[in-house]
Fold this sequence. Notes:
The complex is a heterodimer.
Chain A: E1 3-10, H1 15-25, E2 30-37, E3 43-50, H2 55-67, E4 71-76, E5 82-93, H3 99-108, E6 112-116, E7 120-127, H4 129-140, E8 144-156, H5 166-174
Antiparallel strand pairs in A: 1-3, 1-4, 2-3, 5-7, 5-8, 6-7
Chain B: E1 6-9, H1 10-20, E2 25-28, H2 35-41, E3 49-52, H3 56-70, E4 74-78, H4 82-85, H5 88-96, E5 101-107, H6 123-126, E6 133-136, H7 143-155, E7 161-167, H8 168-172, E8 174-177, H9 197-209, E9 213-217, H10 219-223, H11 227-237, E10 241-243, E11 258-261, H12 268-276, E12 279-283, H13 289-292, E13 303-308, E14 322-325, H14 328-335, H15 345-362, H16 373-383, E15 389-392, H17 396-404, E16 413-415, H18 425-433, E17 441-446, H19 447-450, H20 457-463, E18 468-473, H21 478-487, H22 502-509, E19 512-516, H23 522-531, E20 536-541, E21 561-562, E22 573-574
Parallel strand pairs in B: 2-3, 2-4, 4-5, 5-7, 6-7, 9-10, 9-12, 10-11, 12-13, 13-14, 15-16, 15-17, 17-18, 18-20, 19-20
Antiparallel strand pairs in B: 1-8, 21-22
Helix pairs in contact in B: 1-2, 1-7, 3-5, 3-18, 11-14, 12-15, 16-17
Amino acid sequence: MKQILIALVEDKPGVLNRIASLFRRRNFNIESLVVGHSEVPGASRLTIVTDEEERLRRNIIRQNLLKLVNVIDVTDVTDLPCILREHALIKVQSAGATRGEIAALVDMYRGRIVDVGMESLVVEITGEPTKIESLIDVLATYGIIEIVRAGKVAITRGPQNPTDNGNLHLWKSSRGKASQDKARWKGMTV
Amino acid sequence: MKSAKKMLSGAEIVWESLIREGVEVVFGYPGGANLPIYDTLTAYRDKIKHVLVRHEQGAAHAADGYSRVSGKVGVVMATSGPGATNLITGIATAMMDSVPMVCITGQVAKTSLGADAFQETDITGATLPLTKHSYLVTHVEDLAETIREAFYIARTGRPGPVLIDIPKDIQAAQTEFEYPTEPIHLPGYHPPENATEEQVDEMVAMVNKARQPVLLVGHGVLMSDATKPLLKLMEIANIPASTTLLGIGAVPASHPLNLGMMGMHGTASANHAIQEADLLVACGMRFDDRVTGKLATYSPDSEKIHIDIDASELNKNIRVNLAINADLATVLEQVLPGLKNGNRKEWLDRIAAWKSDAEQRDAVNLESDTLMGAQVIKAIWEGTPDDTIIISDVGQHQMLEVQYYRHEQPHTLVTSGGLGTMGFSLPAAIGTSFHAKDKEIWVIAGDGSIQMNIQELGTAVQEGANINIAIINNGYLGMVRQWQQLFYEARYTETPISSPDYVKLAEAYGLTGLRIDRLDDIPAAMAQARKVKGPVLIDFVVEQHDMVYPMVPTGASLDEMIRRPHPDKEESKTA
């Protein structure tokens, strides 16, 4: 099973570079990495998928990420119930005759056709990575011109936010008023 | 109490901030991109000392050496481009050995960044994997807080080097200055919490149950100031301890439970004990390959406890039964009350047998008429007080130092462990001399190592650094030659190395230089060196072909040591 990590990082220059450099240096393999804004202003959320199978090695990857000063929190959600989604745009060869057929297939996959040309279609699909693979296989018979995939994003099921532990709370509440959080920083004040 | 804010330049803020961080000495070199910082130094001369090195690598090693003996954060300054890149070996050395350091580099003006301007280099990018953290300051308003954060990050948790790159226009820009006092806000930086009660109980139970335990003592014991609780643990539970290279001094050499160093050139008794142990308690060490030998056969029958302040070290190289991510001194204090007095006579007797066997088999012939490197180091040990600081370089002489200089006190050996940086010792010793002003300081270097940063003799003379430099001169890159002899059929490719006339060189630089090739002359030379205020260099011309034994070849198990060949027999490979 792939390892899925959710990381919350400070939105500062070079943070992605630090993460990429860490994976390269430690010889960890990134299968997919997606960055975007999170629910917290100033903090970006990453979903990192690695090919590491072994539990202790997975923890080492997480601990190394946590060592980066700009990484606020990292949760390994591999074993948590979560929704994993990938987004893809697929350009397929299609002159008049096959359009209806492709449209029906795309509909079965709950995808959408977002562009129609004289000789091609662009299909948009969101779903579990296996579903996207499956659609690509099916569309291959018509001739695929181009594929772009957006990498995997994950969110856990249920009311909790796994990254919303003390660190995140601190991050939210202390922006601009760090001194009020003195009690939380026991042992860390200078 | 609120003081009125004053307007200062970025350059002035650098000095003001360093002074507030308690910095007494800075090692550096000026250049185009840090001129504003150097220009404002004049106003702070009475509060802070600047040492002009001869090469920026020397500055980094000097700050490193200073930090290792003082426990303070070492501070380095360099200009942009080549100045900054010259620091890299020193930064990597500090990173591998967890030495707290703040490096302040000048950078081309913000407006020129990315334009391949004169002496521009992406130093934060280049040092990214070699630093604990790094900053490129883009607003003068952030400068004071950045410096404060850098010191905090450098010295807390597992210490390490932090780099601050400051563009020249930021150094010149003015802002209101008040050194921040509120708690540092680093939401992603968490030095570890204490061990849980369950972990402490489990550790106590494992130690009490063990019949053949060994403590593995690393640099973390010294950095966490845990030598006292460690000794208590050893003595209460009657557990022998072996140190890593950087753990030397944490346990007095003369302590009966001290097994000496472990690993590739460790003592045979330590290596045998580790392999036969039923419990290893690893304290602030990281199971480096020089320490473990072949991982698959490392201490096969032992349960393992690993205590380290860096969570990413736990279960990295060696899988352990109990991993504790906490400050070492605190954990050791917590386990002490639960420990039972261990009767381990049988175990200690076995170790004593290995020890006496090894002493006979591996020792250098100290009666030799030709001067041996080991004889020189032993003579220096005999002639110096226990609080002497030895800064050893990297190579055969470094391993001989470990074997023949017996360190009784913590922080008395400074050496480059993890990175194995040749050329470390002379500049590092200059750094230590700014803290340990009342102690004897001895550099022990090979003729190869000393030539790697020989230019720092100039710094030593200019500063009147009170250091003694012992060159163990065998005309070879000895450790490489040893590998060539053992593993490359004695093809000594590019390992014979010539030296300048060190006595003349010393004179040219303006320091006292001596040459010794007889054992009997050493005490007199040392007495003469002691009389001289300032640096002294002694060129010890020694036997050329001696090897360091025992040796665990790369890829072999820890107990598969090559032992010193018997004078009458072929070299013997044995356990």
